[in-house]
Amino acid sequence: MHIDRRCFLGGLAVMGLAGCARASEGTEEIHFGRDTCAKCGMVISDPHFAAEIRGGPDRQLVKFDDAGCAVNWLEKQAWRADTTTDFWVMDADTGQSWLKAMEAWYTPGAMSPMNYGYSAHQQKRDLSVNFEAMKSAALSKG
Ligand SMILES: [Zn+2]
Description:
Elements: H1 2-13, H2 21-24, E1 51-55, E2 60-64, H3 67-75, E3 86-90, E4 98-100, E5 105-107, E6 119-121, H4 131-141
Antiparallel strand pairs: 1-2, 1-3, 3-4, 5-6
Helix pairs in contact: 3-4
The protein binds zinc ion.
Residues 37, 39-40, 42, 64-66, 69, 114 line the site of zinc ion.
């Protein structure tokens, strides 16, 4: 809260919000073993399957332990069709770099935290499916 207010006042002072871009844009660090998934409430402990969504009227960042949790959570938001929503999934190969969820490839059969079973990758590989296919599989699991 402190940071937000300082950012807001600072933005007013310079008649611009450029310096505040970081507060409402981009990914945030997940504190593994401490942060919890917004959908299932489990502690996010495995970097390889983490996901983040930033969107809605306040551009809040929300964290997840499984891409399947993220798509199910997003589906329940009134702003789910907002095309300015940012959605990232962790590259399961490294567990360190974020991929744009819509552009990633999803390989089934992974031991993901909530058993949605998809690992996200930058490149298409055998059996990989696109975002839409992963999403409908995850939604059908609920
Ligand atoms: Zn979850």
